[in-house]
From TrEMBL:
Keywords: GTPase activation. This is Rab-GAP TBC domain-containing protein. PANTHER family: RE60063P, TBC1 DOMAIN FAMILY MEMBER 20/GTPASE. It comes from the Eukaryota. Residues 53-237 form the Rab-GAP TBC domain. The keyword Thylakoid does not apply. PROSITE patterns: TBC_RABGAP. GO terms for cellular component: endoplasmic reticulum membrane.
Length: 388
């Protein structure tokens, strides 16, 4: 035991400590330089590498650039308080009351209450300024992370741009577009591990909803982990969240294959492992993205062109999008959803009344077409089809 202790002590030499400090300082300088130059590509690379942006001080410089909000601050603007109430504010209050469960864990009760008040203000500001957005349970988990990482003057515009331009699909009138995104996960699993995909295919991918909906903020219990994960998620395309989830699933291969019951499998998939090695998972997800880009996945063709998955495909272009652009995309998706719902209703009614419709078709057609033996045979076939 003494030998082991001495060996460990020998590994932690002053030279090693100095070298570690030097590496950190070098990366800090690299982040600051990339922020000064607003080099999106460099920031993307840094966010994937070990440690991400290292600290909240550096995140407060990098995140606004990646979100395109660095040119705007709202230090003393309280005008949102005089805007009409958003229809979802009662639900916001319920969620805020149960916020900050896992972190920060070094605050007094009075400090936590102050943070809850700030969180309520942040969410309310975003919703009143963008009243077309629909609040969803779990949105407060995302807002918590930005509130803790960013100073007050940067939070409002950063959260607005994140909401309208990055997670807009989750703030539509229904979660149908969010659920459509989940079908990219089975496609990814099938491309990488056919056995695991077949094993999981007994379950619809709804098990990924809580994590993808909240950018993992609902289930990750350490602030250092979720802040580091947000580095990558904010720096990359919105679809990257699905790649991270898939890599976590692939890392749990043996555990998941051991579950035979669909209910147990769904429960296991709905919970993240307690100790995520994010510095390994994130680069693995980036490599998975390179080898199997979203355009190669079957479900990609069913994703709306107005979805955040496609409008954020170029992070550089995202930084140039305006909140008004996001609202236009939102309205386009709402119209698509309405037409799709209308089409499904019409199809359902038509199928339920197919016998009557076919009878009318046959009757009208008979007026204009001569009743040859060929036509009579066709009529008989159509009649049988309608009766089936």
């Amino acid at each position: 035991m003494a030998a082991v202790k001495n060996s460990r002590h020998a590994e932690e030499t002053p030279a090693d400590a100095v070298s570690h400090v030097s590496v950190i300082k070098s990366k800090e300088d690299r982040i600051i330089d990339a922020c000064k130059r607003k080099d999106i590509d460099e920031l993307r690379d840094i966010a994937i590498a070990s440690g991400g942006f290292l600290s909240d001080h550096l995140r407060s410089r990098a995140w606004p650039i990646l979100l395109g909000s660095d040119a705007d601050t709202t230090p003393d603007d309280e005008s949102w308080r005089h805007l009409p109430r958003h229809r979802d504010e009662d639900q916001v209050k319920l969620d805020v009351d149960r916020s900050f469960v896992y972190y920060p864990n070094d605050n007094t009760q009075a400090q936590l209450e102050e943070k809850k008040s700030e969180l309520s203000d942040l969410i309310t500001q975003v919703l009143r300024e963008q009243p077309y957005l629909c609040y969803f349970q779990g949105y407060h988990d995302i807002c918590q992370v930005l509130l803790l990482a960013l100073p007050p003057s940067l939070r409002g515009i950063a959260m607005s741009r994140l909401s309208v331009l990055r997670i807009r699909d989750f703030m539509l009138p229904t979660l149908a577009p969010a659920i459509a995104q989940l079908h990219l996960i089975p496609d990814l699993l099938g491309a990488v591990d056919a056995e695991l995909w077949h094993h999981l295919s007994r379950n619809e991918p709804f098990f990924a909803l809580a994590d993808t909906l909240t950018m993992f903020a609902h289930n990750v219990q350490r602030y250092s982990d979720i802040a580091r994960l947000f580095d990558a998620l904010i720096a990359r395309e919105q679809v990257f969240c699905l790649y991270v989830f898939t890599r976590i699933v692939l890392r749990r291969r043996a555990e998941l294959l051991s579950h035979e019951e669909p209910d147990m499998l769904h429960f296991a998939l709905s919970k993240l492992p307690p100790n995520l090695d994010l510095d390994a998972v994130i680069p693995e997800a980036a490599r998975l993205f390179e080898t199997h880009p979203p355009e190669s996945l079957r479900a990609w063709r069913y994703i709306s062109a107005a979805s955040v998955l496609k409008t954020t495909r170029d992070v550089g272009a995202l930084t140039r999008q305006s909140l008004r652009d996001g609202q236009v995309f939102f309205e386009k998706q709402v119209r698509e959803m309405w037409w799709d719902e209308h089409r499904q209703k019409v199809t359902k009614v038509a199928w339920a009344n197919r016998t009557l419709l076919l009878t009318i078709l046959v009757g009208v057609s008979a007026i204009y077409l001569r009743k040859t033996s060929t036509w009579a045979g066709l009529v008989t076939w159509i009649s049988r089809l309608g009766g089936g």
